[in-house]
Amino acid sequence: MDASVIIVTGANRGIGLEICRQLAARGAQVILTARDSKAGKAAAGKLPSEGQPVRFHPFDVNDDEGVADLHEFVRKNFGRCDVLVNNAGIIAEHDDSILSVTPAAMQATLATNTIAPLRLTQALLPLLRKSQRGGRVINVSSGAGELENFSGSWSPAYSLSKAALNLVTRMLAPALAKDGIVVNSMCPGWVRTDMGGSGAPRDVVQGADTAVWLALDAPAKLTGKFFRDRKIIPW
C-alpha cells in the first residue's frame, strides 16, 4: 500500500512542525501547510529526506480560495487524503479576561480555531473518502476547552474556540462513520512553543506524539473521542 497522504495545517513551527517530522520519519507523505511561504518552505526543507520528501503548500485556513486551491493541489498530486490534522490555531490579542475580551478577538479566534477546521474537513471529504485505509481527521484541541476540569484561568476566546472544536469533533464523528472516516480531538498538553511559552513543562516531541498515534496507529474503532497522551480524557 502506498504511503499515507497526510495534511498538517499551521505546520511551519512548534507542534505542527514536530507532527510533520514524526510522520515523515514513519514514511508518510506529508503535506506541510503554512500561511508564510518562506517559513513553510524553510521548515519543510529541514525535515527528514529519507523516503517521501515533505511537500510544502501555502495555505491560510481563513481564505476561501486557499481551501479550494489546497483541495485541487492534493487531488492532482495524490488523488486522495488519508489523514487531515487540523493543527493551525491562534490566541488573539486582548484575550485575557472574560470581562474584557473584545468581539474582534472572539471572532478572529473562533474563525481560525473552530470554523476553519470544520470548513476544511468539509472541503476535503471527497479526498478523505478515497482513502483505502479509512480517512482520519485529527483536531488539535486543548485542555483549555475541557469542560469537566476547566479552571477558568485560560484565555476566554481561546477556551471557547477549543470547546467548540471538541463539539465539532463530536458531531462529525457519527456523521462520517458511514464513510469509514474517524474523527478525534487531542490535547498536546502545555508545550514549550511560541504560544505555550518557555515555562511549559512539555517539549514538542511529547506534544506531537498523540496526533501521530491517532494518524497512524490508533484503532479505527476509536472515533468521537478526546485524547491526551494516547488516553481518552473527559470532554
Overall geometric form: globular
Mean pLDDT: 93
Pairing-aware structural class of the strands and helices?
Answer: alpha/beta
Strands in their spatial order, largest beta sheet: 3-2-1-4-5-6-7-8
Q: Give the tally of β-strands.
A: 8
CATH class equals Alpha Beta
Helix-residue proportion: 40-55%
- Percent strand: 5-15%
Order of helices and strands: EHEHEHEHEHEHEE
- Which homologous superfamily in CATH is the superfamily? NAD(P)-binding Rossmann-like Domain
Largest sheet: 8 strands, mixed
Q: Assign the CATH topology.
A: Rossmann fold
Low-confidence stretches: none
Number of helices: 6
Offer a few descriptive terms.
235 residues, Rossmann fold, 6 helices, globular
Q: What does the model show?
A:
The structure is a single chain. With 235 residues, the protein is of the alpha/beta class. It has one domain: 3-Layer(aba) Sandwich (Rossmann fold), CATH 3.40.50. The chain has six helices and eight strands. The protein has helices at 14-25, 37-45, 64-77, 103-128, 156-176, 204-216, and strands spanning 5-8, 29-34, 55-58, 83-86, 136-140, 182-186, 226-228, 231-232. An eight-stranded mixed sheet has the order 3-2-1-4-5-6-7-8, with helices on both faces. Strand 6 (182-186), helix 6 and strand 7 form a beta-alpha-beta unit. The mean pLDDT is 93.
Explain the layout of strands and helices.
Layout lengths: L4 E4 L5 H12 L3 E6 L2 H9 L9 E4 L5 H14 L5 E4 L16 H26 L7 E5 L15 H21 L5 E5 L17 H13 L9 E3 L2 E2 L3
Helix pairs in contact: 1-6, 3-4, 4-5
